[in-house]
Amino acid sequence: MSVYAVELRDVVKTFHTPEGGTINAVDHVDMQIRHGEFFSMLGSSGCGKTTSLRMIAGFEWPTSGEVFIDGEPQGHKPPFQRKVNTVFQSYALFQHMTVFQNVAFGLEMDKVPPEEIKRRVGEALAMVKLTGLEKRYPRQLSGGQQQRVALARALVKRPKVLLLDEPLGALDLKLRKEMQLELKTLQREVGITFVFVTHDQEEALSMSDRIAVMSYGKVMQVGTPVEIYERPRNKFVADFIGETNLLDGTVRSVDGNSLTVFVPALNAEVRALHQGAFHAGQEVSLSIRPEKIRLVEKPTECANCFPAQVKQVAYIGADTRVIAQVVQAQLRVWEQNMVSTLDPDAYFQQNEQAWALLPPENLLALPVE
Amino acid sequence: MNPHRRSPFVVVMTVLVFLFLYVPIFVLVLYSFNASRTNVTFEGFITAFGPLQMQGSLVVQSPCGPFHWFCDLTRNQEVMTAARNTLTIAFVSTLISTLIGTMAAIALQRHEFKIKPFAQLSLYIPIVIPEIVMGIGILTLFSQVFTWVNTTFNLPPDLRLTLGMGTVIVSHIAFSVPFVTLVVQARLQGFDPSYEEAAMDLGANELVTFWRVTLPMLLPGVLSGALLAFTLSLDDFVITFFTTGPGATTLPIYVYGLLRRIITPQVNALSTVWILIVLAAVFLIQRLENRERA
Ligand SMILES: Nc1ncnc2c1ncn2[C@@H]1O[C@H](COP(=O)(O)OP(=O)(O)OP(=O)(O)O)[C@@H](O)[C@H]1O
Ligand SMILES: [Mg+2]
Questions:
Q1: Which residues of A are less than 8 Å from B208 in CB distance?
Q2: Is residue B194 within 8 Å of A90, Cβ to Cβ?
Q3: What is the mean pLDDT of residues A195-224?
């Protein structure tokens, strides 16, 4: 067994646009997907997620670079010779076949004996909780049920890798949440590598072992959900995943894994965390998440603390979202509502004066692109 | 005011249109039961069963009763031969034109090539140009080619290429293909390529994918295209007239020949049977299209 279930090595896919130009839908992508992993590709529309997935499945061939499945280079192998299966966003269930025939199709292609087909289709349908609907046609099923048939049809082949292109995109929110949990459970049970495409970051964060964040055909960062959120590698990822405040500054000094940065908007030097190679005099961006800024009436200690004025307040239940003027910077601050009370003094009010604490361990220095 | 109120004008127009369309057919069918042999006026039905009895030009009694002219028809060897020719031509040309038309539709959908816009446009040409022009064109082509082949290879008389069943079939294929192609194309429009991708993803090669997935999904389109080709071939007169030869008389050609001599209710009986066949085909097309929509 090779190290990786799927590997993309310097893969480029160039399309000719109808306007006569060319576009690199996938632009020098390297990606290593481990065995048994729930791996997500996350990115906004048009960033090349589907194209990457289609190259793994064999529906497209890379313009350059190579796709490996279980260590084997795939070259120009057609889809029917690859040990992966796909769940399509549109499900692509065969309308003229029953649920049973749909799920059995892949096994028939492998010349599995009829008795075994019957048993395995039964098991697959039980796994996705569709037992009893074997004789239905796809149009006689709800969207959620169709989605499960598509899943069963791909899983029954026991592929090395299952590719899923926004499989939950067509479901309503409630069903979507349910299916997210079910998919994750299913993946743990069968132990098959899942490569999951989504543009919903919450979905990616909650389900994945690791996530590749993509933008304009390039991989911006690969990491666990915690790494992606807490230690973004660049401004794009920091800004794309969740919300953040960005402050520009100049490095004054480097000390182990902390930096001292002069921030003109705060007219002060602040201490920040870093994870790259920085040197004095370099321009950097500091990123701090809204929930990681503290807003207090009187600071007890003052490392990176600044006078602030509350500009706008929005109470949204779990927390209160504040826009605070901190020196010359406008920062978003989310204060968790820890105590249940009706007392208006417990919440920040507009134009209230306060102190903003930017803890150095929550301030992350990122290179300016 | 009731917005759904029907204007009397619309009602009158509708009735007139239906009368105009169906009264001639009704009369035609009625006259196929006419007791009068000359068939100038309707002289009533033949009511008595028994051995044939005539009174002047009136049939009084027949073994088939009111269906006298239909029975008469089956004893007419020329009609039977013409019917057999017509059906043979229709079946063969439908089969081949459906095959070619379906392949053409798929090719036009799937591939990009330089002459594609021209190919698409050329589909409409046989449909829009007058049939007589096409008939003359095909005839000219056949006679030129045949003369050249016959003289160049100096063929003996019984091997010479002549007009006949073969040429009629080829010409029917020629005018049916565009219809089949357009009908199948309509079906292909919006055919999601992910069905075929799903089949291949599950291990089916291109051929298996075509037979097990693509064709079954296109089948309603292919069948209605085939039925269209079949009915077009059944009642074609103009092109057949130009391309037919000895031994390849079809029903329309035969009826036309009869009309120039005398018209007996036999012609009406023949037309009635014919209308029934075409109606059945049209009904089938409708059924297929409805099932698709359901
Ligand atoms: N067959 C094609 N011909 C030309 N351009 C294409 C083709 N397929 C994709 N593209 C382009 O490649 C880019 C990436 O497309 P892709 O479908 O991979 O995006 P995606 O990340 O899946 O987006 P979405 O979230 O909207 O599905 C887009 O700019 C798209 O327009
Ligand atoms: Mg996509």
A1: 109
A2: yes
A3: 95
Please give the torsion angle defined by the CA atoms of residues A136, A142, A145 and A151, in that order, rounded to the nearest 10 degrees.
100
Q: What is the CATH number assigned to the segment(s) B77-261?
A: 1.10.3720.10
Q: Write out chain A residues lying below 8 Å of B211, CB-based.
A: none
Picking from A59, A96, A109, the nearest residue to B202 by CB comes out as A109
Query: Chain B contacts of A57, Cβ < 8 Å?
Result: 197, 201
What is the residue extent of each domain of chain B?
Answer: 77-261
Amino acid identity of B243? Answer: T
Q: What is the 3-state secondary structure (H, E, C) of chain B?
A: CCCCCCCHHHHHHHHHHHHHHHHHHHHHHHHCCCCECCCCCCCCCCCEECCCEEECCEEEEECCHHHHHHHHHHCCHHHHHHHHHHHHHHHHHHHHHHHHHHHHHHHHHHCCCCCHHHHHHHHHHHHHCCHHHHHHHHHHHHHHHHHHHHHHCCCCHHHCCCCCHHHHHHHHHHHHHHHHHHHHHHHHCCCCCHHHHHHHHCCCCHHHHHHHHHHHHHHHHHHHHHHHHHHHHHCCCHHHHHHCCCCCCCHHHHHHHHHHCCCCHHHHHHHHHHHHHHHHHHHHHHHHHHHHHC
Ligand 1 pocket member A54 (CB < 6 A) = no
Query: pLDDT band at residue B1, thresholds of 50, 70 and 90?
Result: low
Size of interface A-B (CB pairs under 8 A): 60
Distance CA A156, CA A123 (A): 8
Q: Find residue A213's DSSP bridge partners.
A: A42, A221
CA torsion angle A202 A207 A208 A213 (round to 10): -20
CB of A47 sitting under 6 A from ligand 1: yes
B197 and A85 within 8 Å at the Cβ level: the answer is no
**3-class DSSP assignment, residue A225:** helix
Considering CB atoms only, which of A86, A90, A109 is closest to B192? A90
Tokens of B248: 């390849």
How many angstroms does the Cα of residue B130 sit away from the middle of ligand 2? 49
Q: Which residue has the tokens 């003109």?
A: A264
CA distance A209 to A195: 11
Residue A25 Cβ contacting ligand 1 at under 6 Å: yes
- B194-250 per-position pLDDT tens digit: 999 999 999 999 999 999 999 998 988 898 899 899 989 988 999 999 999 888 899
Q: Are A98 and A152 in contact (CB under 8 A)?
A: no
User: Of B114, B140, B91, which Cα lies nearest the Cα of B281?
Assistant: B91
Complex ipTM: 0.84
Q: Is the pTM of this model over 0.90?
A: no
Contact A109 B195 (CB under 8 A): no
B113 vs B105: CA distance, rounded Å? 14
